[in-house]
Amino acid sequence: MSSPLSFMAGISLGITITTCILLNFHEQYKFIVDKKKKKIETTTLCEPAKDCLELQQEQFSRIETYFGPEGFQNLRHAFVIVIGLGGVGSHAAQMLARSGVKKLRLIDFDNVTLSSLNRHAVATREDVGTPKVVATAKHLHKIVPSCEIESVVEMFQENTIARHLNIDNQAERPTYVIDAIDDVKTKSCLLAGAVQHGLRVITATGAGGKADPTRICIGSLTDATQGKLYSMNI
Fold first, then answer.
1. Higher pLDDT residue, 106 or 11?
2. pLDDT at 107 over 50
């Protein structure tokens, strides 16, 4: 059972991950986004045309002020894949959507449970028993109707890397991949695949049972000194 402090550590980790991505949008990038989707459940609940430009401009006005017009446009054209929609990934996805990232792919095979409501960013009791990615997409669309969200109700595995990360399609390669997986073997598989194919990945090394969010550090995985994962040759 998660303690309140452990819960706060998880939230802090999710927000920290998002901050790492957002800070990089001070740099200038160009991204190509193709809307074709294969074997992915898409939950677009509101057509962009119904979310008028004036509303979007007002909603993201503070974000654009911070990043500047060009930086904000880079942010709007980013494509981020979030793998693992628990206490860390759901908060990261929520903050990315609220910050204006226009395209997200959410990957998780698990369902919302009563015991996960203490740490999930947006799920409610009404969502118990439904896939985490579907519940997250539903709530995020209420906040940011124009966000394009792909809900992938599947377990990330070695044989799904190419499809989940768009390895073979240069035009659809993600701007960033967020690793919020809590299984060491699966996490290792993702990180190895991302490094092999030159993808930018931000990994959350775990906040379960941790009670001090002030000790969260940002750095390379090679900087870590404890845990089975960090001693692996990824």
1. 106
2. yes
Cβ neighbours, 10 Å, residue 171: 10
Please state the domain count of the chain.
1
- List the one residue out of 148, 149, 156, 115 whose CA is nearest residue 135: 149
Paired with 106 in beta bridges are: 82, 151
Per-residue pLDDT reduced to its tens digit, 148-173:
999 999 999 999 999 999 998 888 99
- The pLDDT confidence band at residue 23, using thresholds 50, 70 and 90, is low
**Which element (helix H / strand E) includes 7?**
helix 4-23
d(CA 88, CA 206): 9
Question: Which residue range forms the structural domain that includes residue 211?
Answer: 4-231
Residues 153 and 109: their CA atoms lie apart, in Å, by 5
> Is residue 106 within a helix (H) or strand (E), and if so which, with residue range?
strand 103-107
CATH of the domain at 109: 3.40.50.720
pLDDT, position 220: 84
DSSP string, 30-86: --------SS-EE---S-GGGS-HHHHHHHTHHHHHHHHHHHHHHHHT-EEEEE--S
